[in-house]
Amino acid sequence: MTTDLQTKKFSFVFNWFDQNGDGWLTRDDFEKIAGMFNALAAEDDEKTKTAMKDAFAYWWGLLLESGGGTSGEKIGLPEFLRIMASSVIAPENFENAVGRIATGMVAALDRDGNGSLSQKEFVRMYDVVGVPSTTSAEWFKRLDRDSSGEISCAEFRQAIVEFYLSPDPNVPGNWLLASMDVFK
């Protein structure tokens, strides 16, 4: 069972994924968001692009399968919330639906190849979705748990896990996609 905080976070994700703002998620929405994130990868990094595209396709497929829908279906917010709670965050699905996107994001953004994200690399991710750099720079500070000036792959993945799975309003991972003010 999800908490009120998780429901608020999942609702935020729904609105973020709803690329055309029509109140429904479709395959097209998932393809558009995958394309936005794929644009962050190096032009010749087909491995990362394919991995992220496949991860978003898996997530969409899981929504359809869990909702009993077909590829042409639309999924509204109530159905999305139910499926997130029952299927997407289930241990047997979470890594393939969400974890692979996290790994792909680090690979796409880590332009110097050191296995972690500098503040500049991290902020670049949010530029594509229109988050001001001053805002994402603040999120970076909260997610850089060891204050090293870099977010390691482990720190990024921990933030992903906390955002989706933790009911605790105080974990740093809650700052992954928005200010905590959004979830109050």
Structural overview:
This protein is mainly alpha-helical and 184 residues long. It has one domain: Orthogonal Bundle (Recoverin, domain 1), CATH 1.10.238. 61% of the residues lie in helices and 3% in strands. The protein is built from 8 helices and 2 strands. Helix 1 crosses helix 4, helix 2 packs antiparallel against helix 3 and helix 3 crosses helix 4. It is globular, with a radius of gyration of 16 Å.
Report a brief summary of the structure.
Residues 5-40, 131-166 form the EF-hand domain. By secondary structure, the chain is mainly alpha-helical. Helix content is 61%, strand content 3%.
Task: Give the key terms.
184 residues; mainly alpha; EF-hand domain-containing protein; two-stranded antiparallel ribbon; 2 strands; Recoverin, domain 1
How are the SSEs placed, and which strands pair?
Elements lengths: L3 H14 L9 H12 L7 H22 L9 H12 L2 H19 L6 E3 H9 L5 H11 L6 E3 H13 L19
Antiparallel strand pairs: 1-2
Helix pairs in contact: 1-4, 2-3, 3-4, 3-5, 5-8, 6-7
InterPro entries: Centrin_CML-like (IPR050145), EF-hand-dom_pair (IPR011992), EF_Hand_1_Ca_BS (IPR018247), EF_hand_dom (IPR002048)
Protein name: EF-hand domain-containing protein
Organism: Polyangium mundeleinium
Q: How many domains comprise the coordinates?
A: 1
Average pLDDT: 87
The strands making up the biggest β-sheet line up spatially as 1-2
At the fold tier of CATH, the topology name is Recoverin, domain 1
- Helicity range: 55-70%
CATH class: Mainly Alpha
CATH architecture: Orthogonal Bundle
Order of helices and strands: HHHHHEHHEH
Beta-strand proportion? under 5%
Q: How would a crystallographer describe the biggest sheet?
A: 2 strands, antiparallel
CATH homologous superfamily? EF-hand
Please count the helical segments.
8
Cα radius of gyration in angstroms: 16 Å
**How many E-type strands?**
2
Distance between the termini: 19 Å
